[in-house]
Amino acid sequence: MALPRKICAPLPLYLTRRRRLGPARRHALLEAALNSLTFPTRGAGLSIVADGLPADCPARGEPPGFSPKLDLLSMVNALTEGILVCGADRCVSYANPSAARLLGLPLDELVGRPLPTVVHAAVDEFETSIHETDWPDLDVLAEGQPQLNQIFGLHCLDGRTVWVSSNWTPLYTEGGHSTTAAPGAARQGARPYSVLVSLVDITQIREAQQRIRHLATHDTLTGLLNRSALEDRLEHALALGRRNRSRVSVMFLDLDRFKNVNDTLGHQFGDMLLREVAARLQACAREADTVARLGGDEFVVMLESLDAMGTRRVAERILSAIGAPFHIEGQELYLGVSIGIAVAPRDGDDPHTLLRKADAAMYLAKERGRNNFQTFTSDLDDRVSRRFRIESGLRRASDRNEFYADYQPRVDVRSGRIVGVEALIRWNSADFGRMMPGQFIQDAEETGLIVEIDRWILRAACDQLARWRRIGLPHLRMSINLSGQAFSSGKLSDMVRRALSASGLPGDAVELEMTEGILIRDDPSLHALLTELRAMGVSLALDDFGTGYSSLSYLHRFPIDTLKIDRSFVQDLPHVAERAAITRAIIMMAQAMGMRTVAEGVESTGQLDFLREVGCDEFQGYLLTRPLEPGAVQNLVRENARRYGERIPRFL
């Protein structure tokens, strides 16, 4: 929103508190010698306001024609942000119309009301109830420090629930004046007399985040938990089991003959069948058990505190339930299910190990005729030992020059120009052949080798970009996806500095991608690391946004430049209304926070048209090209540049 020109320059402002002093005078003027009206970026909100002035207010250096009472009060009343002022008695002494609308109270009822009573109840960002003694105004008054970007859910008196991002700023009296910034008063031990509160309605963003979070933790077809949520549940159950010395059983299920149904009757029919399977599995499990779909026709059931006989009975119930005929669209169908069981702590005490061993036991069930269950035993370790073969190969891969990188271009949505590339590591293993990241990255993370792989891709990508620049290729930005361990290793800033120095690239040529889980850890050293990377000129992107658990407070707290919208949202655009609404909300939120957006996995012109319409900045995906080897990228960028009239050296 464009601001009036007159308020961009420093102006003296004034705050008034309405007070009954007698029939001759209805106001006491508390003059605030404030330096300027400030609108901080990234949702910090309005930090200085004026309540309106009596007609005989003394003027101090205002520009010709400037009326503090008219201009400042009109401006504050026109703000979409809600503005409140409350004192040490916690009563609201000022409110603007937006605050009254947001809280659902008439303005004359809001002013004079104790702050905790303006709503029925309040909850924090994680929906934990906040007692009235824990509201930020008390801490701000006691400590004299502002509290910014506080997110609350307000259960209003009219029955609505409104989510707000709020700033709570102390107001001091210094030299007879009122001010929000009183370093002098602070040094003298002065305490604020009031608190200025700004409220921004983020209800729509919060609801979009809730939908995103549900999509991130649940399978969209069956409504069951997905792999990510299952692993979180399993981690929690294992920790509880260690404390209580109880068992945790994991059942890995794969449907028998499902592929035949899919191939014969079609995927739509198969989807209906999967939903019915999910319902039967939930009916077989106890309320405390967890049922999840990993993908395709693979499911997992997690059983807590159940002995071997109880686990066996659940497996038998599942075999019976899935073996019963399915009646779908007039068709009678029969399936079977192969079940593998692993038990903690006997077979492992971490989610990945248990799932892998249950998977190995499931394959044994298939080998033994399908439609049965098998429990993991030590003779199944051959399947598990593959991890160690991969680990051994990974340790030698760099020395053998087995790693290489492909690059996928990123395109400006509006202009069609290629503006960057994402580096994607590959492994041409002497033992396993050509392997994609999904086939070895998890093993690398579990064995602690991932940071060395991060180091390799960082150096290789920077060297490749430097080579392209030396031969005159139009300047591109190199995006590099690094593991969470790289950000917590304590080595990343040195790795980046060395890669930039060796390649001769400036920091602003590189963008580092991280997942939402890195921010959720809230490591105290993370903010310092990201700030250091930004100081080098490196930009930071949040990859696969919407598939994790990030919150507005984390996005406010860390210096993120770009949100990458996960392909799981893009693939259904623009036809699935819910996905379209969430994608639009993500882009609007990013724009409000000054971030760029990049859509991953764009494969159709319909998807691109929608992204252009809602203001997405860049895209990547098969619509343009698959990831390419460096020479093919060079040719593609050259042709793209010539299309837009850019000069390219002849030797290209």
From TrEMBL:
A Gene Ontology annotation in the biological process aspect, one of them, is:
regulation of DNA-templated transcription
Q: Which residues form the GGDEF domain?
A: 246-378
Q: Which InterPro entries match?
A: Biofilm_reg_signaling (IPR052155), EAL_dom (IPR001633), EAL_sf (IPR035919), GGDEF_dom (IPR000160), Nucleotide_cyclase (IPR029787), PAS (IPR000014), PAS-like_dom_sf (IPR035965), PAS_fold (IPR013767)
The PAS domain, residue ranges: 68-113
One MF term from GO for this chain? catalytic activity
Superkingdom: Bacteria
- Domain EAL residue range list: 387-641
Q: Which CDD domains match?
A: EAL, GGDEF, PAS
The record's annotation in Pfam families points to:
EAL (PF00563), GGDEF (PF00990), PAS (PF00989)
- Classification via NCBIfam families: GGDEF
Q: Which PANTHER family match?
A: BIOFILM ARCHITECTURE MAINTENANCE PROTEIN MBAA, DIGUANYLATE CYCLASE DGCP
Please identify the protein, giving its name as recorded: Diguanylate cyclase/phosphodiesterase with PAS/PAC sensor(S)
Species annotation: Ralstonia pickettii (strain 12J)
